[in-house]
Specification:
By secondary structure, this protein is an alpha/beta fold. The protein folds into 2 domains: 163 residues, 3-Layer(aba) Sandwich (D-Maltodextrin-Binding Protein, domain 2), CATH 3.40.190.10; 136 residues, Periplasmic binding protein-like II (D-Maltodextrin-Binding Protein, domain 2), CATH 3.40.190.10. The protein has 14 helices and 14 strands. Strands 1, 2, 3, 4, 5, 12 and 13 form a 7-stranded mixed sheet that branches. The longest helix is centred in the first third of the chain and has 16 residues. It starts with a helix and ends with a helix.
């Protein structure tokens, strides 16, 4: 079939684009160079006792020491941004929720690197720029103390938290300080539509016990300071004690991303760390401890986890300006100032 001038022009332009635009591909790691560097510094949001298992395996396999600093996503981002803007970033690799990583990506803090093992993950998680590597998801739900609350009496939905019997018995992060919780409450519009803000205001009237981040919530539930709480589902087995979780119809979630610092002092060790975290060995280690990792071969060791995975709703990410407005709005709602 003869090509028209217009079709020839389109075809030649398309071919030109294919040559101009490089395909982002996974990159092999120089293991010998990583071993010579001898150490990697990682900032992240997973509690140390969980990451300790991953780091133990990494250090045993490669003889490279891991220096790990953990905090909430908000604090990880604040520290990393402060160091970056001062020209003295101390981290080689960083991981946090997708929204926080996007904000730091826009600052130019990360450079392109795709761990080879991540290519087995579902394609829709891939960053087209090859800078962020999603490696786990973090569903948010309701946990409860199984010694203080019988299963039949536990909330069956988010709306059940508004029952007067839960007044002053709910634990949750402070959305005016914790970006992930601000994102969660804002994204309730995905499951509640226009009534999401009415729900938040009603939840505030329950006078929940507000905490710094997700991590302290299960501790408070186990100690009996509160009976139920909004937090990450993986804590149901990561925190020792009488904990159960509610099987909701929908679970809001976000991906958690790894990224290589643009100014990493130990780039080869950082790449190897990222590759190990995405490897079948690393993913299985975390799945055994309740993490919702992305490897299809490593389901989390949580009862009925498959039902959770089937009902995930991925959250949108507010812009920096939206975050500022949301934190001010939630401060007014929960504190009246």
């Amino acid at each position: 079939m003869l090509m028209t001038p217009l079709s020839r022009l389109f075809t030649s332009s398309l071919l030109a684009l294919l040559f101009i635009l490089p395909k982002v591909q996974a990159q092999p790691v120089d293991v010998d160079a990583a071993k010579r560097e001898g150490k990697v510094v990682a900032y992240g949001t997973i509690i140390p006792k969980i990451m300790g298992a991953l780091h133990q395996g990494f250090e045993k396999k490669y003889g490279i020491k891991v220096e790990y600093w953990r905090a909430s996503a908000t604090k990880v981002m604040d520290r990393a941004l402060t160091e970056w803007r001062a020209g003295k970033p101390a981290f080689d690799v960083l991981f946090a929720i997708h929204g926080a990583m996007l904000l730091m990506k826009k600052e130019g803090m990360f450079t392109q690197y795709i761990p080879p093992s991540s290519e087995s993950f579902p394609a829709h998680y891939r960053d087209p720029d090859g800078i962020l590597t999603s490696w786990r998801v973090t569903p948010i739900g309701i946990l409860y103390n199984t010694e203080l609350v019988k299963p039949q009496d536990a909330p069956k939905s988010l709306d059940d938290l508004l029952n007067p019997k839960w007044r002053r018995k709910i634990g949750m992060p402070d959305a005016s300080r914790h970006t992930s919780t601000a994102q969660f409450l804002w994204n309730l519009q995905k499951v509640k539509g226009e009534k999401w803000l009415d729900f938040v205001k009603a939840l505030a009237k329950q006078e929940p016990h507000l905490m710094e981040s997700m991590a302290p919530v299960p501790n408070a539930i186990v100690r009996g300071e509160v009976q139920v709480g909004l937090t990450y589902l993986q804590y149901v087995i990561q925190q020792k004690g009488p904990l159960g979780f509610v099987q909701l119809n929908k679970f809001l979630t976000d991906s958690n991303d790894l990224a290589l610092s643009s100014k990493a002092s130990r780039p080869s060790a950082a790449k190897l760390y990222m590759e190990y975290a995405c490897s079948p060995e690393g993913q299985q280690t975390l799945a055994e401890l309740g993490e919702f990792v992305l490897s299809p071969a490593a389901p989390p060791k949580i009862k009925d986890a498959e039902k959770v995975l089937a009902n995930l709703v991925f959250m949108d990410n507010p812009t920096p300006d939206q975050y500022k407005k949301l934190t001010a709005q939630f401060r007014q709602i929960f504190f009246g100032n």
